[in-house]
Amino acid sequence: MTRRLILIRVFAVLAVLTGINYLTWRWMESLNWEAWWIAVPLVIAETYSLIDTFLFAATMWRAKERSGPESPPTGTVDVFITTYNEPIAMVMATARAAKNIAYPHQTFVLDDGDRPEMAAAAQAEGLGYITRSADWTDKPRHAKAGNLNNALFETEGEFLLILDADQIPDPLILHRTLGYFADDEQVALVQTPQWFINVDEEDPLGSQAPLFYGPIQQGKDGWNAAFFCGSNAVLRREALMQLGIVGYVRGLQDSTQRTLRAAERLLSREARRNQPIPALHAALKDLRVEVSRARAEVSAGEPIADVTYRLQGQITEASRLLVKNDLDLMAEDLAAIQSIPVQRDSELGTVVIDQVGLDALATRELSPLAAVKSVAALVDALRVDRPDEAQPIQPLATISVTEDMATAMQLHSMGWRSVYHHEILARGLAPEDLQTMLKQRLRWAQGTMQVFLRDNPLVKRGLSTGQRLMYFGTMWSYLAGFAAIVYLCAPVIYLMFGVMPVTAWSGDFFARFLPYFLINQLLFLIVARGIRTWRGQQYSLALFPVWIRACTSSVANVVFKKPLSFVVTRKDGRVGGTLPLREVWPQLTAIAVLIIALITGIIRVLIGTADGTGTLVNTVWVAYSLAALSIIIQALRYKGPAAHAEEAEGAS
Amino acid sequence: MNLNVTTHARYAVVRPEGRLTASAAPRLKQAMRKLIEEGNPRIVVDLGQTDFIDSSGLGALIGGLKAARLAEGDLRLAAASESVQSVLKLTSLDRVLRDHPTVEAAFGDE
């Protein structure tokens, strides 16, 4: 074990222990029950943060720094460049760089925008060009996951390098990563960092994520849980296809069971309804018995294709009988109701009836037609090809707008391994304005919460405890918005109205809080090792409305089936126009309220109506929040990297 | 992979010989598509000479099943070797498609 890792572990343990010490005191002895409405939310928020500390400590516990693969690179490779609406020139710059990757490979542009100009540009360079096949017409498209899934069936390389349209690859990207697959046959994914060239040291939009593409990914890697981040990653085709097959079987098992159960209910109902027509009643009852038998067989493990094939035959045969029965009845009816003309077509030899007569029969309460119709619908529902989807096999997960996380978790649950290779091997473009950045963060957070709600890692079969914690940790961090509201409100309420969430800001408080706080900061410093993390810390508080919206909208999506409006991140500069004040009003309001609270607090001390220590603690607290939130104003004023560079030059 | 296609009175037989992997899967799919277009939607895939199958190969089988069913036919597997059977089991595709002991048994007396 390296000295650094020992140090990390010591501080990780200390951080959690001092945290437990502080929080126990907070819960047991310091709650001001008279102001429970703020005291209880605050202590819950603090408990949230302690769990966050624990998850961070767990992440860093086994941090793995890899030097590179041992084996030489082998295997056939397809390079996929995914695009939807990015400028052709940008895509081609990436595509040309991809073509120049030193290791032998084939390059494909996956154009979800289906643009003729894009096709022409790709062909002129001798690159592959793939758009959705006809199968996708009128089917759910599943965004980028769908784009990749479509391409998987038109290519055959053993490994796939996935690049976003703006991520210019290093010529050695495959040489540096392919060896990991040869080192270990169970490796399904090698992720490299995402690095942006259009941001400077200041990085007002917090685009670089050096803590994530560094210590955090290395930490997750230690638990065999390095995340897939959608781009700059190499994947093993076999692993993805296996996910697709297993997913297909699982989906088919579910839908078959569901359909058969529904069929049983439907047939029982139709049989009851048609009791007055004995032949029909008996036929429906027989069919019901067959469906029940089929259901029992599927449960017992009989192959679904066999069972449904046989059952479909039986249903078709039954429908035929019912239709015949229907025609006989009709003939009787028609004979009775002389008014409806019926003739025999002289050429075809079939009965020809006019629509009015048919409608009259169909609306009759005991129409065998209705039964036939519902039974025929069953045949269709028992299909083995997932008729509601373009492809029966969907290797990349489609349960979330961020397909990457869901896919990696699925891979991990099936025993595949992942690798984080810490070396910048592709350089891309970050959003250049606040609005685009906010949309991107919202999408990431929504995607993560969708996975949490649809495929909870804490209970997902096949994951190790470490992997559960690593996935859960990321999801937990997106709940920060709710805690942030409490953290912003509590000091304001004290400074303005003197309402205390704790019994006293006494020596007891400092003795317990300060060690916890300081050790936490130290752990963070050790982990970060000189990386600038302040931007990330600022945004983790300052984006509180985004985190909250992500949580509420994904609950609405998963539980109440409301659509999330999916947004593709713009990579071609600013949207332009007015300041997006409407999107950051909660932050601006918070800043205003914090400043008013600060002034009020100071005045209250000066006129002697407030306690000095309490005001000091809360003033420091407010000052920290203000410092964090101030990044929003900086980001609002930011005019993109070009303008930023000019300003800097003008100043010097 | 070598691909052998024969048509019989009640069904057609496709026999992939060797390794049925990602690079061979498109040819298998193509062959099945052609059979269906020519009016032979009842297909037996004879896996007796298939030494190895990967998930892309399985994908081609599922694609064939879909196409055959849409053409009111069916796709059946026969004579899978032990290594192929183990892949069917691993991916649980054996819960969907039955491996019939012989080509002749696949469509039985249907």
Automatic annotation (TrEMBL), chain A:
Topology with respect to the bilayer: Multi-pass membrane protein
Gene Ontology annotations of biological process type: cellulose biosynthetic process
Keyword Glycoprotein: no
Transmembrane segments: 7-24, 36-58, 469-497, 509-527, 539-560, 584-607, 619-636
Superkingdom to which the source organism belongs: Bacteria
GO molecular function: cellulose synthase (UDP-forming) activity
Listed CDD domains: CESA_CelA_like
Key words, A-Z: Glycosyltransferase, Membrane, Transferase, Transmembrane, Transmembrane helix
Keyword Amino-acid biosynthesis included in the entry's annotation: no
Record's GO cellular component terms: endomembrane system; plasma membrane
Protein's cellular compartments: Endomembrane system
Binding site residues for Mn(2+): 144, 164
InterPro entries: Cellulose_synth, Glycosyltr_2/OpgH_subfam, Nucleotide-diphossugar_trans
Protein name per the record: Cellulose synthase (UDP-forming)
Phylogenetic classification of the source organism: Bacteria, Bacillati, Actinomycetota, Actinomycetes, Micrococcales
From TrEMBL, chain B:
PANTHER family attached to this UniProt entry: ANTI-SIGMA FACTOR ANTAGONIST TM_1081-RELATED (PTHR33495:SF2), ANTI-SIGMA FACTOR ANTAGONIST TM_1081-RELATED-RELATED (PTHR33495)
Matches recorded under InterPro entries: Anti-sigma_ant, STAS_dom, STAS_dom_sf
One annotated GO molecular function: anti-sigma factor antagonist activity
Location of the STAS domain: 1-110
Entry protein name: Anti-sigma factor antagonist
Pfam families assigned to the protein according to its UniProt record, in alphabetical order: STAS
Gene3D superfamilies found in the cross-reference section: STAS domain (3.30.750.24)
UniProt similarity note: Belongs to the anti-sigma-factor antagonist family.
